[in-house]
Amino acid sequence: MTYPVTSLEPGSVVVITGIMAAGKSTVAQALAERLPRAAHIRGDVFRRMIVSGREEYEPGAGPGSEAESQLRLRYGLSASTADAYAEAGFTAIVQDVILGEELKRYVDLVRTRPLYVVVLAPRAEAVAARESGRGKTGYGEWTVAALDEGFRATTPRVGLWLDTSDLSVGETVDAILSRLDEAAL
């Protein structure tokens, strides 16, 4: 018999993913702030730590490329960091762009259980509107429509998928907390 999950316990890991401008950073921070003991692990921090020799993961970066190696390094570091925070009794909230089959690989990197995966999947037009209003741009050679299409076609349906197009940050956090059983792996 399984019981519904009703709260995030310290020592667990939550992975929040989605395409750029889906709201990952804002939602992860808001979720962490609602919990009594939580850490927000921003995957992009590990990318930015490479000062020289950094290869950005762009369209056409093929298997075995330096860009792919650095992406996997970033994922490994964030997963290890999440495990360390969870082991210390924090709920670790990891936020990063983890798309396609990389999501399954990432889930395998995280040793901590319970593990929850939340995929923020607002409509492409909502993402494009958010992207145009941001002070930073993350798309480079990508387009919102192309990345969204690839994301939906190749990302395995694990965890809780939320269309947050019409949800506020608070409503998104409420949805995550009320549907933890769907996010649990």
What do these coordinates show?
The chain is of the alpha/beta class. The protein has a single domain (13-183), classed as Rossmann fold (3-Layer(aba) Sandwich), CATH 3.40.50.300. It is 44% helix and 13% strand. It is built from 8 helices and 5 strands. It has helices spanning 24-34, 43-48, 66-87, 102-109, 124-132, 144-154, 169-178, 180-183, and strands spanning 13-17, 38-42, 91-95, 115-120, 160-162. A 5-stranded parallel β-sheet has the order 2-3-1-4-5, sandwiched between helices. Helix 1 (24-34) packs across helix 7 (169-178). It is globular and about 40 Å long.
Number of E-type strands: 5
Order the strands across the largest sheet as they lie in space.
Answer: 2-3-1-4-5
CATH architecture: 3-Layer(aba) Sandwich
Rounded mean pLDDT score: 90
Overall tally of domains: 1
* CATH C-level: Alpha Beta
CATH topology: Rossmann fold
Taken as a percent bin, the fraction of beta residues is 5-15%
The major β-sheet equals: 5 strands, parallel
Radius of gyration: 16 Å
Shape: globular
Low-confidence stretches: none
Class by SSE composition: alpha/beta
Query: How much helical structure, as a percent, in the residues?
Result: 40-55%
Order of helices and strands: EHEHHEHEHHEHH
Oligomer: single chain
Query: Which homologous superfamily in CATH is the superfamily?
Result: P-loop containing nucleotide triphosphate hydrolases
Termini separation: 16 Å
Helix run count: 8
